[in-house]
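Q: Given only this backbone (310 positions), what sequence would you predict?
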């Protein structure tokens, strides 16, 4: 008698399967840059919570986590939602987008394509049931805080996941670079001629810088501290989440001064490294970071989109 391969089962992820998911995630993500292991509490908060955290503002509506099993063995899962990412906050409440937050294919074998197809079909059925016509996959703002220092993009070397998405009709919309700078000694802060004042907000772990010239808003930045437990000896990472200068105030080295202030503050707070993920569209930011000693890592991250109504 010919042996029969176990059938593939696609169903919602159950709460009592957290340990299996944690083990699978921590094994699969061990080599992802700036990623720390998920413990039970972090796994619940980031995967099972009805309002999961992210470094950027996201308005979640419906969420669904779907797993692929064969003979009780986890072969992949997909984390999907409807809602509004950081770039769609102004859309009408009745017009959410589909959000593919995460896709992980565990068994890199001849069965991988079938697993990917089944998971993506289940995800699209979920979005269609919610009346969603457009999907954003691995948008940078919807990532797990434990993954890539909060960057939601899919790493370029995840060939199975990238191949699955492009084969299913998703197209690339954005590419991200990773730039890092070691922190050890303070740098000189040359005060801009604009006589700016800095107003600090947030907390020690999530710092907000607001720049003003009298009552005029000039610019802002946000820096988040991340403890990478998996690094040798552990170390604190400072993540430059956002920085901008009002167009009317550009060309006066204000961004350079603000970045130097961030470097010095992060050094004093005990961070060993400052990291920034920058879109290929942000040529000015790439130039500024390079001028102040940031080095580009061997990394590319991608966001994709798909129109379900096409």
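A: Predicted residues:
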């Amino acid at each position: 008698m010919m042996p029969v391969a176990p059938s593939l089962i696609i169903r919602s992820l159950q709460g009592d399967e957290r340990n299996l998911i944690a083990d699978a995630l921590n094994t699969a993500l061990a080599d992802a840059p700036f990623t720390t292991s998920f413990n039970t509490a972090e796994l619940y908060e980031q995967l099972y919570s009805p309002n999961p955290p992210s470094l950027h503002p996201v308005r979640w509506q419906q969420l669904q986590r779907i797993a692929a099993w064969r003979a009780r063995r986890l072969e992949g899962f997909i984390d999907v939602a409807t809602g509004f990412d950081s770039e769609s906050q102004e859309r009408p409440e009745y017009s959410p987008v589909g959000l593919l937050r995460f896709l992980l294919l565990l068994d890199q074998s001849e069965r991988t394509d079938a697993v990917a197809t089944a998971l993506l079909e289940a995800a699209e059925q979920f979005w269609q049931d919610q009346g969603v016509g457009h999907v954003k996959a691995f948008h940078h703002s919807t990532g797990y805080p434990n993954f890539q220092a909060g960057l939601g993009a899919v790493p370029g070397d995840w060939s199975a996941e990238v191949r699955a998405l492009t084969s299913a009709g998703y197209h690339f919309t954005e590419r991200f670079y990773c730039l890092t700078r070691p922190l050890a000694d303070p740098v000189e802060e040359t005060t801009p001629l604009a006589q700016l004042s800095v107003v600090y907000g947030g907390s020690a772990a999530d710092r907000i810088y607001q720049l003003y010239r009298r009552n005029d808003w000039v610019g802002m930045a946000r820096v988040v501290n991340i403890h990478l437990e998996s690094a040798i000896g552990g170390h604190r990472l400072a993540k430059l989440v956002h920085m901008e200068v009002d167009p009317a105030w550009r060309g006066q080295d204000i961004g350079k001064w603000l970045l130097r202030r961030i470097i010095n503050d992060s050094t004093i707070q005990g961070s060993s490294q400052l990291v920034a993920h920058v879109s290929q569209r942000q040529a000015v930011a790439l130039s500024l970071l390079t001028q102040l000693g940031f080095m580009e890592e061997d990394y590319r991250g991608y966001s994709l989109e798909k129109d379900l109504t096409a």
